[in-house]
Each structure stands twice: as C-alpha cells, then as structure tokens.
Amino acid sequence: MEKNNKLLSQEDIMNLLDSCYSKVLDGVPYVSPTVEEFANANLFDIEQSIQKLGMYKVKAKNILGIANDLVNLYGGKVPCEKELLTQLPGVGVKTANVVRAELFNIPEIAVDTHILRISKRLSLAQESDGPLEVESKLRKKFKVDQYIKLHHQ
C-alpha cells in the first residue's frame, strides 16, 4: 500500500492537523508539494515557515530528515508499515498510527494526551497507564471498525 510521491497533499495536512495547527499554518508562504522538493529544501526556509509552532527547529530538522529518508530509503513513497514509520526522524507510535489510519485507512488508535486523559477519566485505563497500555486496553474495548473514528470523537 503506497501513497503517491507527494509527502502530504494540502488535504492530507488539513486532515492530520487540528484546528490549532491549521490556524498557525494558515497563509504559510513556504510550500513544497513533493517529497523530493522537501528533501532538497533549505533547513532555514522550513524553519521560517513553521516558526509559529513550538520547537520549530526540531520539527524542521525532522521534516527534512523524513523527506530525505522517504526519498533515499522508500523511493519517495510513504511506507504503511508501523515499524518503518517509527524509524523516521521524530515519528513515534502515535504519529505512525495517525499516518496509517488517515493515509492508508488501516485501523489504528492514536493515543494523544487527550485520549490518554479521557480514557483514564472514564476508567477505561488506570491512572498509571502510559500511551501504549491505553492503546492496548482500548483495542480490547472497541471494535476494529471503530478505531479510526474513535480518535476523532
């Protein structure tokens, strides 16, 4: 399962970002439509285009690293395997699950701070549980066809 050679289309970006991030990125002048263009981009230009975000220097470095890895290791395609996604710079389990769910429609539960907090408040998880434990418990409590939708509710 592969996506075309675009790192993310504008539609993909808007689907993956919540309204807070979309407001920050509204009107950003730096646009690079293909993964190859990102891989060849100047780090400073990427930093300038996302400087409104927290930790923008780290994020810009990761964007450049991801683009280079996608081009050099995966032929410009976004891999769908969680193990490969989590080897990309700055990509953890939560981000890998979001990418798999949103880009490839693979049933995944992305546990962010909100899902973590709500799961504990609703006694679906223990207070001491981390994201991986919460994900495991939610997988047992919900049907597979509910996984993707669950994160959006």
Task: Describe the protein's architecture and organization.
- With 153 residues, the protein is an all-alpha fold.
- Helices cover 57% and strands 0% of the residues.
- It is built from ten helices and no strands.
- The protein has helices spanning 10-16, 19-25, 35-39, 43-49, 56-74, 82-85, 93-104, 113-121, 131-141, 147-152.
- The longest helix is centred in the middle third of the chain and has 19 residues, at 56-74.
- The protein is globular and about 45 Å long.
List the helices and strands and how they pair.
Elements: H1 10-16, H2 19-25, H3 35-39, H4 43-49, H5 56-74, H6 82-85, H7 93-104, H8 113-121, H9 131-141, H10 147-152
Helix pairs in contact: 4-5
Spell out the key features of this protein.
153 residues, mainly alpha, 57% helix, 0% strand, globular
